[in-house]
From TrEMBL:
This is PF03932 family protein CutC. It is found in: Cytoplasm. The lineage of its organism: Bacteria, Bacillati, Bacillota, Bacilli, Lactobacillales. It comes from the Bacteria. The gene is cutC. Transmembrane segments: none annotated. The keyword Chloroplast does not apply. InterPro entries: CutC-like, CutC-like_dom_sf. Its main location: cytoplasm. The keyword Cytoplasm applies. Belongs to the CutC family. Pfam families: CutC. Keywords: Cytoplasm.
Length: 211
């Protein structure tokens, strides 16, 4: 089981790795779902994680709130992607939607292009896409070389135990074309049961391991 642990800032990375985290997702402002850290934090985090033989995914999100971005915000995200690339970050997590909750294909195409050389994760913006449009979103993301989709399978206010049936549907549709990474409400206590139920080999969470 690959355990991706979401952390805020650099502070908890040494503890998370010592406790057995396999991959780190680096954020600022987890209270709003995560935003981009500073260049300094990103640099030190990448250095430490790589020295310890693990991989680093960094959140690329200029603010909290929705995932509908204007041109200036997209420019900021592209600049942050180039910084992440220059610092040797392994993967980046982002998502851009239109006002009606569909993938912003133009924005995503530009952001994916700016991510060359790094793995790309479409984050929980996915859960804001209407459920009947999610299969098409999976297909589009897979066709555009996105590696993983981080999803709770529903609103974060819904316990993950209640979203497991929808997660199973998404995993079945994704099949071998893209990885569905379940997250949100997964802890060290329920992780094994959830992984077994879903048949997945990767999980994401802030409390996936105890440290």
């Amino acid at each position: 089981m690959l355990r991706e642990v979401a952390v805020e800032n650099y502070t908890h990375i040494p503890q998370a790795l010592a406790a057995g985290a396999d991959r780190i997702e680096l954020n600022d402002n987890l209270a709003v779902g995560g935003t981009t850290v500073s260049k300094g934090v990103m640099a030190e985090s990448a250095k430490y994680v790589h020295e310890h033989g693990r991989s680093l995914v960094t959140m690329i999100r200029p603010r909290g709130g929705n995932f509908v971005y204007n041109d200036t915000e997209l420019k900021i995200m592209e600049a942050d992607l180039f910084e992440a690339q220059a610092l040797g970050v392994d993967g980046v997590a982002f998502g851009a939607l239109t006002a009606d909750g569909l993938i912003d294909e133009d924005a995503m195409t530009s952001l994916i292009a700016a991510s060359a050389g790094m793995s790309v994760v479409f984050h929980m913006a996915f859960d804001a896409i209407p459920e009947d449009q999610q299969p098409a979103a999976i297909d589009w993301l897979a066709a555009h070389h996105v590696d993983r989709i981080l999803t709770h399978g529903g609103p974060l206010t819904t316990p993950i135990e209640s979203t497991l049936p929808h997660l199973q549907t998404l995993i079945a549709h994704a099949a071998d074309q893209i990885t569905i990474l379940p997250g949100g409400g997964i802890t060290s206590q329920n992780a094994t049961a959830i992984a077994d139920k879903l048949g997945v080999k990767e999980l994401h969470g802030t409390k996936l391991i105890d440290f």
